[in-house]
User: Fold Guanylate kinase from Jatrophihabitans telluris.
Amino acid sequence: MTSGTTDAPTPRARLTVLSGPSGVGKGTVVAEVRRLYPHVWVSVSCTTRKPRPGESDGVQYHFVSDAQFDELIATGQLLEYATFAGNRYGTPRKPVDQHLAAGRPTVLEIELQGARQIRDAMPEAQFVLLAPPSMAELRERLLGRRTEGPPDLEARLARAEIELAAADEFDEVIVNDDVEHAAGELVKLIESASAE
Assistant:
């Protein structure tokens, strides 16, 4: 029981950082989390890469030019940023701060390099690694996307090995062997984090 007035400010929500190798299904799991737990807010990253078929600006990513990305860095508007497969990705700071301050559970879906920057900036966040059932399965998922040629595919798999080796840097590991199950596990973690 707490003392004080009944008009106390809304407690700041806890940030959940979801990371995992390319092709592990982060976007698919997050889409299912949104369906299961509509109260969650998922940050939309900026990227300098070109949209893939079916992607829309402001939905999957904010697609920006290199010059625009440079400006976001120079003006301190990114919470974290990283380069991956020749493109840059970053998390806009202001909307994350606004949603957390309003008490809304917030999820960032980012790569390992970005997750490490967030750990330095916001060590109170919850860090979750989404892992594939096996490297063979990850290779099949990447092949199925048909978005990378052989050199890019091998580079992504090599990077995945490094990212999965960093599992001990995370608070929790969820194996994405079934999207609904993985999303359900993530929702439980988000709910428990926001209840603390």
About this structure: The domain at 15-195 is CATH 3.40.50.300 (Rossmann fold).
